[in-house]
């Protein structure tokens, strides 16, 4: 209903403004050619500067444009790969003959994200990276989204072939909610997850005009959550980019760790990526476009079988399923033992059984094995005088943690992945100053992503619907983002529930039919069977010292522990359903249909509703005096998970969250030498106090092309919808939100809640939004039109960092994990350097280096130590960031005007430590966290392309990680191999 009302109002406004079109017109027409070859250029944009009117050239390079704006006005002529020209029009002109010069662009790009106004990238007040159409076309990466990892300062956590999380400047996570991703001004996050799902439901590469990345805080203009950066993707206007275009890309994915479900090697598999776009304009007044993009592949596989349990003295380097009975494999599910159940856990039960008469024991266990076990203990105690309880503790039930035998991820998810993106838009120009847009983006996909579990997202859907009015100095837009989780489920929960459905871990009404008692009593029975013989041998060797003989016998039994454990596991696991068996599939199918917490099904139908507007006050205040911009927005989240993810209200249904914000920006320029920009923003979420976000910057320009900048920026992150209202039971812990409504549901403020593993009480302090304060200096300059240098240094302070605390309460049988703020500041710093150089004949070489350093654990800016994830006072954070990353590249888009081009890029990333909620609690301590390491890796990407003019196409052959240096980007994530591809891109207006 809300969406319908919004669209009705916008359509009413659109059509009511039709009468505003002016009658007086200026006619402009002519022809545009390539200066070097004098060939006509198709698809060249001719636009009136500062207005929303324009057209493009046809196949013969000709154009015709009628303009309502009274002359004089300025035409801007732009085309991909050509220098921009501007021509002043003083009246009707039908004889324009314009030649465009080809250009290797260095420092000439125009960006809008830094200040929400168009400006030269060299004079941006903050750090910014941009990929234009030519960069996208020439990248060696399989897609533009994959190419983001080559930008300076970017970290990418890849969880699937079509799902990656982008981040900058620390605090990387698999689902990154500290970087905002915008598609045509729409927040592309999944509302129930609060992070974008990569480009699964994003934008087709054929329809992409540019990508701009703002590293660091951007909240002063873009509001909540742009605390680590902003990724702005802009699609092609159907007025400017018309005609038919299509792309077919196919190739091979290669990784040695991949297998079929039955274990057969599956190293090399095909992938396919096809896309279609069509756009058409009618008399430069009405235009539309449609897009479709489909990708299918067999995904990268997560096969990390290191032991992350840290039980029984083992760690990821030493533990395995063969030597550690408490084994917890990284990508093995169902083997989690978050409560630390051990053989010693059954000592109280055994103590009770020691006092039960034999006749009653036979009733409990008609097989007589239990009576035989209890009788044996009592007999040894009587012979030696050693208390029966001591024999149980030392021999039968040692303090050894035991876990169940889980299932590898390969048996629990389907690695056949796909995504489908559909897009359509209608643009209408009412006059030279006003354009209306109706747009719909819809995406669906199947993938796997990593969070507190490994989630298999099957037929996930994300839809965005937008209505917008915009002019040269304002816009008003309203949109809705609607998430549908499809047939999604948590693989970890699935593994656990399959085991429980087959044989419960502990069933109080049937202990001997439960897994842990079977393991414990089988181990105890085997130990007791061997112990009397060992004791007799020890007594024979030392008849006068029963205590010494007892200890010798215990030591002898300890040598048999691996055999005893194997026997106990064999009994407890007898009949366990094998992956793919009828019994396994029966259990799995039923559990996938049951929502969390009764099963593994992940339900989410959360919607986001957003309205915003911006106005440049140039018509009210002379921009030469001061350039003022104002803006405001309103947003609402309507949570809807059917009670599986979010807390339900006492009266039923789930919560809604409302927030709003407004900002003011002022820019003052002094004779093209000094530009000062200041802005301030205020935001309020209903559950938290309001937040002010100021920003001030200065850019000093020397000798035209040398720009020195300094800025103070602030950003903030409102706790996510899950931070606020999550209520989810996982294999690791019970996850609850940080608001009073959630904790009170479990009566956690009863005075009995303590920090897990301690007796320290927890008093639940106020939950606050995160804030970051950043000071940055930088230089960006162009030397002799051939050498582009971009350098920066920043120093940031994070306040109210949202981490997590694990709690215990007698009323909750599992560990409780809830978000909390760190009450001290976290400081971190970094620098970046990018150099690009144009060689003769348009060969280019380039490279970039970036550093991110957390000021903790004695780590210095220039040393070789890894960034820590546990602060000096023991507080755990997820910084998860390599200290150094760098890229080197060499390319030529058009070698000697032959149509041949190439690009080679080498990328390196340091080893770093990782910490996230997916890991068991005991792995996150200061000592153990040093062993949760993501290894360093390097990759080589390369491509060769050929423009085939007769068929208006570009053929490209290339590969990503062509040397197949397999790597992973985060704990629990899949192993990434090589991709080799061939693509053919057709564009009706290709020059």
Structure characterization notes:
It is built from 16 helices and 51 strands. The two termini are 46 Å apart. With 991 residues, it is of the alpha+beta class. The strands form ten sheets. It has a 22-stranded antiparallel barrel. It has a five-stranded mixed beta sheet with strand order 10-17-18-13-14. The model is unreliable at 1-23 (pLDDT under 50). Helix 10 packs across helix 11. It is 16% helix and 40% strand. Strand 43 (826-838) and strand 44 (844-854) form a beta hairpin.
The beta-strand count equals 51
Q: Say what oligomer this is.
A: single chain
Termini distance?
46 Å
What is the radius of gyration computed over CA atoms, rounded to a whole number of angstroms?
32 Å
Let me know the average pLDDT. Answer: 90
- How big a fraction of the residues is strand? 35-45%
Tally of helical segments? 16
Largest sheet: 22 strands, antiparallel, barrel
Note poorly predicted spans. Answer: 1-23
Return the structural class: alpha+beta
User: What is the overall shape?
Assistant: elongated
Report helical residue fraction.
Answer: 10-25%
Brief description of this entry?
This protein is an alpha+beta fold. The longest helix is centred in the middle third of the chain and has 27 residues, at 515-541. The protein is elongated and about 120 Å long.
Helices and strands in order:
Elements: H1 2-16, E1 26-34, E2 45-48, E3 54-56, E4 62-67, E5 73-78, E6 85-89, E7 93-100, E8 110-111, E9 119-120, E10 129-131, H2 133-138, H3 144-147, E11 154-160, E12 163-168, E13 179-183, E14 186-187, E15 189-190, E16 195-196, E17 208-215, H4 219-222, E18 229-235, E19 243-254, E20 268-282, E21 286-298, E22 332-333, H5 347-353, H6 358-364, H7 369-384, H8 388-396, E23 407-408, E24 416-431, E25 434-450, E26 454-470, E27 474-484, E28 488-490, H9 491-502, H10 515-541, H11 546-558, H12 561-572, H13 582-592, E29 601-602, E30 607-616, E31 627-638, E32 656-670, E33 674-685, E34 691-702, E35 706-717, H14 721-725, E36 727-729, E37 734-736, H15 740-745, E38 754-755, E39 770-783, E40 787-799, E41 802-809, E42 812-821, E43 826-838, E44 844-854, E45 884-892, E46 900-909, E47 912-913, H16 926-929, E48 933-934, E49 937-948, E50 953-960, E51 978-987
Parallel strand pairs: 1-7, 13-18, 37-42
Antiparallel strand pairs: 1-4, 2-3, 2-5, 5-6, 8-9, 10-17, 11-12, 13-14, 15-16, 17-18, 19-20, 19-51, 20-21, 21-24, 22-23, 24-25, 25-26, 26-27, 26-28, 27-30, 28-29, 30-31, 31-32, 32-33, 33-34, 34-35, 35-39, 36-37, 38-41, 39-40, 40-43, 41-42, 43-44, 44-45, 45-46, 46-49, 47-48, 49-50, 50-51
């Amino acid at each position: 209903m809300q969406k319908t009302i919004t669209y009705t109002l916008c359509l009413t406004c659109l059509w009511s403004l039709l009468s505003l079109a002016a009658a007086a017109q200026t006619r402009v027409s002519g022809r545009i050619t390539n200066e070097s070859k004098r060939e006509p250029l198709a698809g060249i944009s001719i636009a009136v500067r500062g207005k929303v009117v324009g057209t493009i050239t046809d196949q013969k390079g000709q154009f015709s444009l009628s303009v309502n704006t009274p002359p004089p006005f300025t035409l801007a002529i732009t085309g991909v790969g050509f220098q921009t020209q501007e021509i002043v029009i003083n009246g009707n002109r039908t004889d324009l003959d314009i030649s465009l010069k080809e250009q290797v662009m260095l420092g000439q790009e125009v960006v809008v994200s830094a200040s929400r106004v168009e400006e030269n990238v060299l004079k941006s007040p903050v750090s910014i990276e941009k990929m234009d159409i030519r960069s996208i076309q020439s990248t060696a990466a399989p897609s533009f989204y994959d190419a983001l990892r080559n930008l300076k300062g970017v970290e990418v956590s890849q969880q699937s072939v079509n799902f990656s999380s982008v981040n900058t400047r620390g605090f990387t996570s698999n689902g990154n909610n500290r970087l905002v991703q915008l598609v045509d001004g729409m927040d592309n996050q999944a509302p129930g997850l609060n992070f974008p799902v990569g480009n699964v439901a994003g934008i087709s590469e054929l329809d992409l005009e540019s990508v701009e990345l703002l590293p660091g805080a951007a909240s002063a203009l873009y509001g909540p959550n742009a605390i680590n950066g902003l990724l702005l993707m802009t699609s092609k206007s159907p007025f400017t980019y018309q005609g038919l275009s299509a792309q077919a890309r196919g190739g091979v994915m290669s990784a040695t760790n991949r297998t079929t479900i039955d274990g057969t090697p599956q190293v090399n598999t095909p992938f396919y990526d096809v896309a279609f776009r069509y756009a058409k304009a009618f008399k430069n007044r009405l235009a539309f476009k449609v897009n479709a993009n489909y990708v299918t592949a067999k995904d990268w596989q997560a096969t990390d079988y290191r032991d992350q349990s840290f039980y029984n003295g083992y760690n990821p380097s030493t533990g395995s399923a063969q030597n550690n009975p408490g084994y917890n494999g990284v990508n093995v599910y169902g083997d989690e033992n978050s409560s630390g159940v051990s053989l010693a856990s059954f000592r109280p039960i055994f103590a009770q059984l020691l006092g039960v008469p034999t006749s009653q024991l036979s009733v409990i266990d008609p097989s007589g094995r239990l009576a035989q076990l209890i009788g044996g203990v009592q007999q040894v105690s009587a012979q030696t005088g050693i208390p029966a309880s001591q024999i149980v503790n030392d021999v039968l039930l040692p303090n050894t943690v035991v876990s169940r035998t889980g299932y590898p991820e390969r048996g629990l998810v389907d690695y056949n992945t796909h995504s489908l993106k559909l897009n359509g838009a209608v643009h209408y120009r009412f006059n030279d100053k006003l354009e209306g847009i109706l747009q719909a983006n819809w995406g669906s996909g199947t993938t796997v992503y990593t969070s507190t579990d490994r989630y298999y997202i099957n037929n996930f859907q994300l839809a965005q619907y937008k209505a917008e009015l915009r002019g040269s100095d304002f816009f008003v837009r309203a949109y809705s983002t609607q998430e549908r989780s499809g047939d999604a489920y948590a693989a970890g929960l699935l593994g656990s529930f399959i085991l429980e459905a087959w044989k419960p871990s502990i069933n109080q009404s049937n202990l001997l039919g439960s897994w842990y008692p079977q393991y414990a009593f089988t181990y105890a029975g085997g130990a007791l069977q061997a112990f009397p013989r060992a004791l007799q041998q020890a007594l024979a060797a030392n008849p006068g010292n029963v205590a010494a003989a007892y200890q010798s016998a215990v030591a002898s039994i300890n040598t048999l522990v691996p055999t005893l454990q194997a026997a106990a596991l064999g009994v407890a696991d007898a009949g366990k359903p094998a992956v793919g068996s009828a019994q396994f599939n029966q259990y799995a199918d039923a559990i996938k249909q049951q929502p969390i917490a009764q099963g593994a099904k992940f339900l989410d139908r959360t919607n986001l509703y957003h309205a915003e507007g911006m106005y440049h006050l140039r018509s009210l205040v002379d921009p030469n005096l001061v350039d003022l911009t104002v803006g405001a927005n309103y947003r609402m989240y309507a949570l809807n998970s059917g009670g599986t993810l979010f807390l339900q209200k006492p009266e039923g249904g789930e919560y809604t969250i409302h927030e709003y914000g407004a900002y003011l920006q002022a820019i003052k320029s002094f004779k093209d030498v000094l530009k000062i920009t200041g802005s301030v923003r205020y935001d309020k979420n209903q559950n938290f106090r309001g937040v002010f976000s100021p920003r001030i910057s200065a850019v000093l320009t020397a000798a035209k092309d040398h720009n020195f900048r300094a800025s103070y920026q602030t950003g903030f992150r409102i706790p996510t919808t899950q931070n606020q209202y999550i209520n989810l039971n996982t294999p690791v812990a019970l996850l609850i939100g940080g608001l009073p409504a959630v904790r009170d549901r479990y009566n956690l403020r009863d005075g009995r809640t303590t920090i897990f593993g301690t007796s320290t009480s927890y008093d639940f302090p106020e939950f606050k939004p995160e804030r970051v304060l950043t000071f940055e200096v930088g230089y960006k300059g162009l030397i002799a039109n051939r050498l582009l240098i971009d350098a920066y240094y920043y120093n940031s302070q994070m306040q109210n960092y949202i981490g997590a605390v694990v709690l215990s309460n007698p009323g909750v049988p599992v560990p409780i994990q809830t978000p909390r703020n760190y009450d001290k500041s976290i400081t971190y710093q970094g620098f970046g350097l990018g150099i690009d150089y144009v060689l003769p004949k348009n060969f280019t070489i380039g490279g970039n280096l970036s550093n991110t350093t957390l000021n903790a654990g004695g780590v210095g800016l220039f040393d070789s130590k890894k960034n820590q994830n546990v602060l000096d006072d023991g507080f755990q954070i997820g910084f998860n960031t390599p200290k150094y990353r760098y890229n080197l590249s060499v390319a030529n888009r058009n070698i000697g005007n032959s149509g041949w081009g190439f690009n080679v890029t080498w990328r390196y990333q340091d080893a770093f430590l990782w910490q996230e909620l997916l890991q068991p609690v005991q792995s996150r301590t200061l000592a153990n966290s040093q062993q949760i390491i993501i290894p360093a890796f390097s990759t080589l990407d390369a491509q060769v392309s050929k423009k085939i003019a007769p068929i208006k196409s570009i053929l490209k052959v290339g590969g990503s990680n062509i040397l197949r240096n397999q790597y992973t980007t985060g704990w629990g994530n899949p192993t990434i191999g090589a991709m080799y591809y061939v693509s053919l891109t057709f564009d009706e207006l290709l020059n």
